[in-house]
Input
Amino acid sequence: MRRELVRVLAAEDCGGYRLLRVERGTLDPGAPGQFFMLEAPGRLWPRPMSLCFAPAGELAFLIDPIGPGTRALAALERGDRLHILGPLGNGYDLAVERTLLVGGGIGIAPLPYLSEHLGCPPALLGFRSSRHAEAADLVPNAEIVLDPVLVTDALRELPDLDGRSVLACGPEPMLWAVAELCPRAQLAWEAPMACGYGACYGCAVSIRGRLRRLCVDGPVLKVDEVDAPLAA
Ligand code: FES
Output
């Protein structure tokens, strides 16, 4: 883990999201599912962002500009500078076979990098609008569903679901629905994070009756590692 001041190489619209590409510097891109803390200039708190992909010399992040912090990151332009800390947390276990990637909304963010590491397995992605679904172009071999159809509705219809290794990321209700359907799934959870490395307990959740920090024990957890519901 390192903290480094890096330059924005490009910022472009990607469906309803913003794709921020920054220089990698000496940062290690880490494993799929790990995250970085991005500090927008002038903002007090950094925001945790999964690495979306990592071409040579770059790190790329997919941002949903839904609050002041993420809007500040989405407003960055080529040449701007920001501090980045990472890689942080635990990523996906890549020792899997017959893999299916499942993503909901901005939860597709870690899937391009994950797909690249796993040889582009099939993916099932759900979005709230056709505009947001344009971001599915980042994920190879993706089948798309749009609201009001849920990604878990499509998952339930798969005839060979029992034999699949499901690796998922998305909103909490989606993850619980995936957990019910796929007891061996790996799930990447979201939580408010202030530090990203275990110091603040801002991301503490209940795991098997104990408060654990999602930034160091997660964000990727196997279904049998979580209590229902995952709550502070
Ligand atoms: Fe600070 Fe997890 S974000 S302990």
